[in-house]
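Protein modeling request. Please complete all fields; requests missing the sequence field cannot be processed.
Requester role: graduate student
Desired output: 3D structure, token encoding
Chains: 1
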Amino acid sequence: MTLPKETLLRAYRQMKTIREFEERAHAEIMNGQIPGFTHLYTGQEANAVGVCEHLSDADTIISTHRGHGHCIAKGADVIGMMKELWGSSEGLCKGKGGSMHVADFEKGILGANGIVAGGPPISVGSALAAKIRGNTNVAVSFSGDGSVNQGTCFEAMNLAVVLQVPAIFVIENNYYSEHTNISYAVGCDDLKARTEAFGFPVFVADGADFFAVYEAAGKAIAHARAGKEPAGVFAEQGRYHGHFVGDPQHYRGAGELDDLRKNHDCLKNFRARMLQTGELGSEELDAVDAEVMALIDRAVAEAKAAPRPTPEQVEQDVYITYGA
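Delivered output (324 residues):
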């Protein structure tokens, strides 16, 4: 697969931004700067970027409790997201959403969702809206491997087929549903076949390879746009951190995390491929790294200095009043 240089640079920048956003968030949570539960996406960056590179602002995504990466990949303002984690009234959701409920409707981000498999039904609704309006928009739901045992996920998949709507179900298998390995939690060894049984095509990708995810997602999204029909993407890649920040991860095997970071890293793989093909040079990639680090430093500095919500704002942006 050959992609334009600007696409390659954008994809690398997005993956690097997600990685550094998450690692900095981890550090700030551990030193007590950011309150509340946070679930980090580190290691799975290629999934979000590989999918969202095919989407426009008019397309919608809905995320999970591990949603920072999806939102950044879809175009959410990084500084606004960092302010949201800090609980600032200048955050994307005015400090009322926090880590697990980041949303930006102008970018087609319907929100992160703290409920496992809470997103697919909402995404089917968005896909139905696209069909009724007669446009070519698609709706993407990101879910973890834990979602594939939830009734809401199965019901959404079935309804998408019944209604024939352009919904794309992206299942990210990071091997653990919270703390339970997929080998124990799922009674079927072939999740692709189980999902295809609902009646739509599913494309599988290595989540440590941006190009593999980009290709699989491209096929699924093209299928949905062309025929107004659902499709699926299965991407496998382990997360580098625990289920939540502070998770002791006693369920991990010896050497598992070291192996993930050393041998299953989408950024390392992307760099290696670019240097091998000569499509991008090390100086160009290093320049992106420097730009991203400067952005993250700025985001943290602004978030720390940003105003907090006031008591007078408690009833603002909570309910919508529709005119007659």
